[in-house]
């Protein structure tokens, strides 16, 4: 007959087993959270790429289908909308025209409402800023503003021989990515 050890596991052995299991669980939790954060960043990056593609496509479709006649700055820019610093007007050969501008006021309410407007279409830049009730005390929505909008080069015009080259540039840079998700269009017309 085989003699069995009736001693069982000691308290120390149980405690060591528990500690080892907890270390493994904490390591797995950390890995899962890192992957989740990376996935969220990549999803946000894809949203900005889609935003850029959508706005650029709408403007380029008009330039190609309606045939661009000329691009002119609108003076004063505030005639396009209040608090607009720069606005350009795109005129087409079919007699239509559309204004292009960015609403980029740096106030708490405006951060939630930044948009690019082309004609009657508004393209909202940010949808991921938390509501006031979700923001920790001592912070504002401005603390979550991580997209820089630069329209310093919104309109460029160069004449070469009997052609006019227009450049439209709206830079949107997301601080975490360091990439420009903006609208950059170059079009040429005959004089």
Describe this structure in a few short sentences.
The protein has 191 residues and is α+β, with helices and mostly antiparallel strands.
Shape: elongated
Class of secondary structure makeup: alpha+beta
**Strand sequence of the main sheet, in spatial order?**
1-2-3-4-5
Cα distance spanning the termini: 108 Å
What's the number of structural domains? Answer: 1
Order of helices and strands: HEEEHEEEEEEE
Biggest sheet, open or closed, and with what strands and sense?
Answer: 5 strands, antiparallel
- Parts with pLDDT < 50 across at least 5 consecutive residues: none
In helices, the fraction of residues equals: 25-40%
Number of DSSP-assigned strands: 10
Features:
10 strands, alpha+beta, 191 residues, 2 helices, 31% helix, 5-stranded antiparallel beta sheet
Summarize the structure in words:
With 191 residues, the chain is of the alpha+beta class. It has one domain. 31% of the residues lie in helices and 31% in strands. The protein has 2 helices and 10 strands, in the order H-E-E-E-H-E-E-E-E-E-E-E. The strands form 2 sheets. Strands 1-2-3-4-5 form a 5-stranded antiparallel beta sheet, covered by helices on one side. The longest helix has 55 residues, at 11-65. The radius of gyration is 28 Å and the shape is elongated. The termini are far apart.
């Amino acid at each position: 007959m085989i003699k069995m050890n009736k001693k069982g596991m000691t308290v120390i052995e149980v405690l060591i087993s528990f500690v080892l299991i907890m270390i493994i669980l904490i390591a797995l939790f950390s890995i899962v959270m890192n992957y989740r954060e990376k996935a969220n960043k990549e999803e946000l990056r894809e949203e900005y790429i889609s935003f850029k593609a959508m706005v650029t496509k709408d403007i380029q479709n008009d330039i190609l289908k309606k045939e661009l006649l000329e691009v002119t700055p609108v003076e004063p820019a505030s005639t396009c909308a209040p608090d607009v610093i720069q606005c350009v007007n795109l005129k087409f050969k079919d007699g239509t025209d559309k204004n292009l501008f960015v609403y980029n006021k740096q106030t708490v309410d405006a951060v939630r409402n930044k948009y690019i407007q082309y004609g009657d279409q508004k393209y909202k830049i940010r949808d991921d800023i938390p509501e006031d009730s979700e923001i920790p005390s001592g912070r504002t929505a401005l603390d979550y503003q991580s997209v820089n909008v630069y329209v310093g080069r919104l309109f460029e015009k160069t004449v070469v021989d009997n052609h006019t080259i227009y450049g439209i540039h709206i830079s949107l840079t997301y601080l975490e990515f360091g990439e420009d998700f903006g609208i950059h269009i170059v079009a040429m017309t005959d004089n």
